[in-house]
């Protein structure tokens, strides 16, 4: 969608809702350099949300939405869970249909958009919880990867079923006592990043949302690789502070503690050879763009 | 985006001309052709301008689904692939329809049941997907034989449900189905059912429309809900998501939306009547005895009526073409003078008889049966014999005929 399409006729400007005026004036559509630093100055794709105070998932949502490289042509697919309470507030088209079928929906959606808009880039991004991605939807998660569907899968890993009240999930740590695991979970946390690699994903990162610049980088990489090469997977720790007995202010520290080199959310990355080539190419272009901007700035300074 | 009408007269990449659907279906010259039901599905889809077909093997629809793959290879369908299960396939169909594609799929029996969670979602999301259901047994132990029990589940999903008798019905209704289900005041998925094997695996003469004519493409911007393609201004869909809230507004929203889906089924009535010349077909409804049937039970009933006519018993016939919308008024009117309403069915529960009983006055007139199930055939003689017994006429049992 071009930015032209959201322009308001001058005569009607004053009667449009202020949010829409903001969208036109301060949106970051068509801005290839958009990123987390726009938060607070540009019109965000999410402002209010209905998650718990201090929920790390809300931080993740804001960083991810600020980092989408092409929001004007991005459709997101969600699933049932806490994320489905947020998506109705998000200003990109998004689909929530059933629990666990997100990668199937995204497969059909991406193919439909490719048939309908063969000459344009339409990004599809899946964002779902760990229950949806790894338990009920695992079949469809993996099959989309086997088929090399060209979209990004993001898993918000809070290591349990948060929205239904803290039940055991496949990504929960072994031994953790939870609802439906009354004597502690009996098996290890499912190693989905490794499974993703074996299933054909071209770019895989496991991390937390403690560093917004890191989230911006991995989101952009994941979307660029999915667009050109094939499936990509991000597993992001968004602890459910409520269910692990933390306070509103403690989410960030929990993520920092869990991403230390010896901990289970230490940064992990896998990049396939074709993806490495693409990312190197994009990095070179970005470097050239920055150098050019610098040169222009310098020439302007001289003129002044 | 151009409207549908603006495509008419233009050619697609296979040199087919996008044709006014009414002219294509009612005025264009027809060529009689001898095909299996599965091949007929392929021929209809060839002319349907489908963007996406998603397939999964299950008897007896596998052949039709594979033949659609050939159409894709020939360039008649935008994209095609095999999904991993019927649940996934129906979600993939939903994703494609959310993205503004005209979508086609086929399934049967246990596959229909496995995918069931998707169907109320399709209807609620107002996705005009067309799904062919080649009915087969869903009982245990496993059966692949014809049995129409799965239709009774589909009837409560909010989908349009039609029941084809012959390959000719199938051919016409696949094409007409898109025209009805894509109307802005309908915009609902269609389950186009037939009795597996009897229709899919037998050859029949079918009058085909010209191969160089096809339906105009689907226009997703006529949908009553936004197409999820980021081509219209994105706004937050809701300020306060009512999905999981427990309050009056939430209940009222869900209640009114369910009512709207069922109202849309009702609104499909006028379009369906126009395209299919009524929701029912009737013969001799002034007779004292009327058979009400759908699917191949109609064909068997015709034979039974001929047998009875030879014995001096006059029986009328009412063919139910659409189950959703339910032709309640039509059935009431056509059976108002009947003393006996006989309902033969290819399933154990007699769902059609239940629907008719809930529709007509003096419903003690309704005789539910004969029923065959699990793949048994329904010889016309057992329908005739059922009617003779009903009239107090002694008949030889089928076994006695040797």
What this model shows, in words?
The complex is a heterodimer of chains A (304) and B (402). Chain A is an alpha/beta fold and 304 residues long. The model of chain A has no long low-confidence stretch (mean pLDDT 93). Chain A has helices at residues 18-26, 56-67, 83-86, 102-116, 130-136, 138-146, 192-198, 212-228, 251-258, 273-303, and strands at residues 74-77, 94-95, 123-129, 152-157, 203-208, 232-237, 268-271. The longest helix of chain A is centred in the last third of the chain and has 31 residues, at 273-303. Chain A has a seven-stranded mixed sheet with strand order 2-1-3-4-6-5-7, with helices on both faces. Chain A has three domains: 1-30, no CATH class; 32-271, Rossmann fold (3-Layer(aba) Sandwich); 276-304. In chain A, helix 8 (212-228) links the parallel strand 5 and strand 6 (232-237). Chain A is globular, with a radius of gyration of 20 Å. In chain B, the strands form four sheets. A seven-stranded mixed sheet of chain B has the order 4-3-5-6-8-7-14, sandwiched between helices. Chain B has a five-stranded mixed sheet with strand order 11-13-12-15-16, with helices on both faces. Chain B has two domains: 7-222, Rossmann fold (3-Layer(aba) Sandwich), CATH 3.40.50; 280-401, Rossmann fold. In chain B, strand 3 (52-55), helix 3 and strand 4 form a beta-alpha-beta unit. Chain B has 402 residues and is α/β, with parallel strands linked by helices. The termini of chain B are far apart. The chains are: A alpha/beta (304), B alpha/beta (402). At the A-B interface, helix 1, strand 1, strand 2, helix 4 and helix 6 of A face helix 4 of B.
């Amino acid at each position: 969608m071009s930015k032209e399409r959201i322009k308001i006729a001058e005569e009607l400007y004053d009667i449009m809702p202020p949010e829409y005026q903001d969208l036109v004036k301060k949106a970051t559509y068509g801005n290839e350099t958009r990123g987390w630093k726009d938060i607070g100055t540009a019109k965000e794709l999410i402002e209010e949300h209905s998650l718990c105070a201090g929920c790390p998932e809300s931080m993740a949502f804001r960083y991810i939405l600020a980092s989408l490289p092409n929001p004007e042509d991005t459709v997101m697919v969600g699933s049932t869970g806490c994320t489905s309470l947020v998506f109705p507030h998000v200003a990109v088209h998004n689909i929530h249909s059933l629990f666990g079928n997100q990668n199937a929906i995204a497969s059909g959606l991406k193919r439909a958009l490719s048939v309908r808009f063969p000459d344009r880039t339409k990004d599809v991004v899946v964002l779902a919880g760990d229950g949806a991605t790894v338990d009920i939807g695992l079949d469809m998660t993996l099959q989309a990867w086997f088929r090399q569907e060209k979209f990004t899968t993001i898993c918000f890993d809070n290591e349990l079923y948060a929205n239904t009240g803290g039940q055991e999930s496949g990504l929960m740590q072994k031994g953790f006592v939870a609802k439906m695991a009354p004597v502690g979970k009996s098996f290890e946390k499912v190693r989905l990043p490794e499974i993703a690699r074996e299933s054909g994903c071209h770019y895989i990162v496991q991390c937390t949302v403690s560093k917004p610049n890191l989230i911006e980088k991995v989101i952009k990489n994941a979307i660029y690789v999915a667009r050109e090469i094939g499936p990509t997977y991000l597993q992001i720790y968004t602890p459910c502070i409520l269910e692990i007995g933390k306070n509103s202010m403690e989410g960030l520290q929990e993520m920092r503690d869990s991403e230390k080199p010896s901990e289970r959310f230490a940064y992990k990355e896998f990049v396939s050879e074709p993806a490495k080539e693409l990312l190197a190419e994009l990095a070179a272009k970005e470097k050239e763009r920055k150098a050019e901007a610098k040169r222009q700035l310098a020439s302007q300074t001289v003129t002044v | 985006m151009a409207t549908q009408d603006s495509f008419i007269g233009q050619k697609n990449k296979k040199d087919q001309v996008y044709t006014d659907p009414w002219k294509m279906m009612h005025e264009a010259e027809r060529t009689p052709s001898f095909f299996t039901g599965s091949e007929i599905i392929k021929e209809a889809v060839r002319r349907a301008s489908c963007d996406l077909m998603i397939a999964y093997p299950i008897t007896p629809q596998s052949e039709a689904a594979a033949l659609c793959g050939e159409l894709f290879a020939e360039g008649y369908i935008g994209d095609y692939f095999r999904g991993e299960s019927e649940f996934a396939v129906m979600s993939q169909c939903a994703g494609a329809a959310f993205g503004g594609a005209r979508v086609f799929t086929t399934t049967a029996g246990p596959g229909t049941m496995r995918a069931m969670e998707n169907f109320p979602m399709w209807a609620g999301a107002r996705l005009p997907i067309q799904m062919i259901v080649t009915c087969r047994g869903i009982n245990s132990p496993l059966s692949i034989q014809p049995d129409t029990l799965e239709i009774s589940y589909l009837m409560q999903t909010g989908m349009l449900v039609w029941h084809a008798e012959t390959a000719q019905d199938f051919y016409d209704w696949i094409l007409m189905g898109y025209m009805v289900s894509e109307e802005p005041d309908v915009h609902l998925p269609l389950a186009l059912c037939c009795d597996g094997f009897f229709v899919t695996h037998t050859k029949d003469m079918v009058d085909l429309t010209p191969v160089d004519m096809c339906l105009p493409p689907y226009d997703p911007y006529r949908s009553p809900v936004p197409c999820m393609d980021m081509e219209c201004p994105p706004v937050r869909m809701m300020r306060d998501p009512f999905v999981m809230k427990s309050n009056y507004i939430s209940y009222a929203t869900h209640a009114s939306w369910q009512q709207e889906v069922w109202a849309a089924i009702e609104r499909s009535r006028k379009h369906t009547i126009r395209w299919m010349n009524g929701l029912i077909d009737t013969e001799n409804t002034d007779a004292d005895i009327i058979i009400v049937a759908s699917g191949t039970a109609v064909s068997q009933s015709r034979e039974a009526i001929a047998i009875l006519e030879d014995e001096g018993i006059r029986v009328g016939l009412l063919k139910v073409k659409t189950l959703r919308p339910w032709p309640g008024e039509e059935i009431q009117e056509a059976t108002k003078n009947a003393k006996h309403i006989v309902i033969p069915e290819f399933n154990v529960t007699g769902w059609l008889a239940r629907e008719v009983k809930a529709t007509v006055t003096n419903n003690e007139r309704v005789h539910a049966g004969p029923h065959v199930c699990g793949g048994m055939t329904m010889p016309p003689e057992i329908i005739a014999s059922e009617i003779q017994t009903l009239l107090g006429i002694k008949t030889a049992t089928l076994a006695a005929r040797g």
